[in-house]
Design a protein that fits this description.
Elements lengths: L2 H11 L31 H7 L15 H78 L8 E8 L6 E5 L13 E5 L8 E6 L3 E6 L5 E6 L15 E6 L7 E5 L6 E5 L6 E3 L9 E3 L8 E5 L2
Antiparallel strand pairs: 1-4, 1-12, 2-3, 4-5, 5-8, 6-7, 8-9, 10-11
């Protein structure tokens, strides 16, 4: 600072203050009240700038809130408290809803499992009903078609009417499989034993077969080889033997030919050809093309 400036500052500080009007006054901070200005002679530009600001009112410090502000603050505090309470209640409600949702999900899972079990039972029941309907249809079919029922088995012996105490005998020794021409021997016997017993197997269309009791799956077989209906060659004709299994050569018709149970045994494959027994010759059986005394038999039921 220059010497002249220092002198000027000293001169201003020593000068008496400018007279003020009676209406003007100084506040407690030493500033002029609003509406009064300092003189140019005693105030610097910075001092005048400060003095131009509005001084605070008496008795009201800037940091002290007003009643309105207090009421507003309390109202805000009350609102915040209510909002917090409502938020807590809402959070509780959300928790309850989540728990109820979890329980509902568990119930839905259980219901789905029960539904799957019910569907499985329903499918099993449908299968059972289908099976029962099928069995019922089979039973109805059998009831309406009795000729198609399973053949019944009756044990008999074939006895000659003309020759007393003469029976058909079947020896199938060594025959264990099917042969086109058959095998074994059909003979004549004077008594009934194992080889003279047959199971009378019934078939549809009133046909029967004679199955050996003593031999497994062996049937009486007849083939009218070179023998025509109406022919009566001496000693008979054709072939009468055994066969493993039952085919068309092993089926016969039983014809009633007398009033006392006499029957004739006719080949089903060769109509008009009949089983013939010559009691004077015990070593073979033949067929005949006519029906006479040697072609008549009794079917003796064996217990």
């Amino acid at each position: 600072m220059k010497h002249s400036d220092l002198a000027s500052t000293r001169s201003r500080s020593m000068m008496p203050a400018s007279p003020r009007s009676a209406a003007s006054d100084v506040d407690i901070f030493g500033l002029w009240r609003h509406g009064s200005n300092t003189t140019t002679a005693c105030d610097t530009p910075s001092e005048r700038t400060v003095a131009d600001h509005d001084p605070p009112s008496y008795g009201h410090h800037p940091s002290e809130p007003t009643n309105t502000q207090l009421q507003t603050h309390q109202a805000l505090q009350t609102t915040v408290t209510q909002l917090r309470q409502e938020s807590a209640h809402l959070q509780t409600t959300i928790t309850q809803l989540r728990q109820e949702g979890a329980q509902l999900q568990t119930t839905i899972t259980q219901l789905r499992q029960e539904n799957a079990q019910l569907q499985s039972k329903a499918q099993a029941l449908d299968t059972t009903v289908t099976q029962l309907q099928h069995e019922n249809a089979q039973l109805q079919s059998k009831a309406q078609s009795p000729t198609r029922t399973a053949p019944t088995l009756v044990r008999v012996a074939i006895k000659s009417v003309h020759f007393a105490s003469r029976y058909v005998k079947m020896d199938a020794s060594g025959l264990r499989s099917h042969h086109p021409a058959g095998g074994g021997h059909v003979l004549v016997q004077t008594y009934i034993a194992g080889w003279e017993e047959f199971e009378l197997v019934r078939h549809p269309d009133n046909l029967v077969s004679f199955k050996a009791i003593y031999f497994d799956n062996i049937f009486l077989r007849a083939e009218a080889k070179g023998l025509n209906p109406g022919q009566t060659p001496d000693g008979g004709g054709g072939v009468v033997n055994c066969q493993y299994g039952c085919g068309r050569f092993e089926k016969f018709r039983i014809l009633r030919v007398g009033k006392h149970g006499e029957v004739a045994i006719e080949s089903a494959e060769f109509p008009g050809r009949y089983l013939s027994l010559n009691g004077n010759c015990l070593d073979s059986m033949k067929l005949q093309g006519t029906l006479n005394a040697w072609e008549k038999f009794y079917l003796v039921f064996v217990p």
